[in-house]
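Please review the protein record below. Tell me whether the encoded fold seems credible here:
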Amino acid sequence: MKLAIHYRPGSYSDRWITYCTEKLIPYKLVSCYDSDIIKQLADCNGLLWHWTTSDYKAALFARQLILSLEKKKFRVFPDVNSSWHYDDKVGQKYLLEAINAPFIKSYVFYSKQEAINWVNKATFPKVFKLRNGASSSNVKLIKNKQIAKQIINKAFKSGFSRAEPISRLKQRFWILKRDKNKASLKKFINGIGRLFIIPEGEIVRNKEKGYVFFQDYIAGNTYDTRVIVIGDKCFGARRYCRPGDFRASGSGLFTYDPALMNMEMVRISFDVAKRLGTQSLAFDFILDKGKPKIIEISYCFAIECCDDAPGFWDSSLNWHYENVNLQKYMIEDFIKSLSKRTSRTEKIAI
């Protein structure tokens, strides 16, 4: 067995390489941006690529490459089932509604007039989102119909930039106040620089326009719950909202205390991940009249996510104390899937 790993410093690839080195698993480093990437994979059994839409190049072709490799029966992490809906809240709406998952009520319109007609009948506040964005970016609380109509007019006229430099700077200032360290200070200074120097990815990307997406706002939630399912393991954290903010994502205020976990969320997460056939899936939950509702999903998350968690639940909802490394579980499950495929192939050959 030989693995191909797309190397990007600061990504999951760091831990995957460490794992392969320690376990003496053959691997080679590749670049999925190379035109001959499929040829490079000829002597490998599977590809691991931690791609994110913060890299505009990956956003252009990652899904297409993954699907193409799967068509030739080549294993990839993340696979199509895990990643086609990544950073696409509109796609997630259709997917979760299709399988009747407990998803927060959401509305999408591709016509300005239909959106206005809906606003005239809707109750407020509502939550406005763009298709993409992480750490609460491009997420706003719309308090009344007048503001909703302003959002709609912009959505079908000039559109929205995926980047929000002012909001991003506020987020980095919040982190600076919270952490008070050199790393957060450096990020804040870089955020100031981005007000004047626009990154290449933000220049080449088109604006988000021609649609508008809203979700119901559920009042009274002072936290959300992040639940991650990788194979037969589930990890959870309660994430608290910043003071005066309805959003918990990106706050950095959280606890891994398993006693605070809503076990119905764990059960739902295992069920949805199984039905979708995913390798890795993170859920964001809130409570609606005491019942868990999914806000959105993602195949990936911060590399250090759950490093301080005391353990995990298995698919039978039993708790296991263990030092957690999510990237290790990803590559272990991936290798198991390759081993099963190799075993089946050998039996057929015999």
The chain has twelve helices and 15 strands. The CA atoms of residues 179 and 185 lie 9 Å apart. The two ends are 19 Å apart (CA to CA). The longest strand covers residues 280-288.
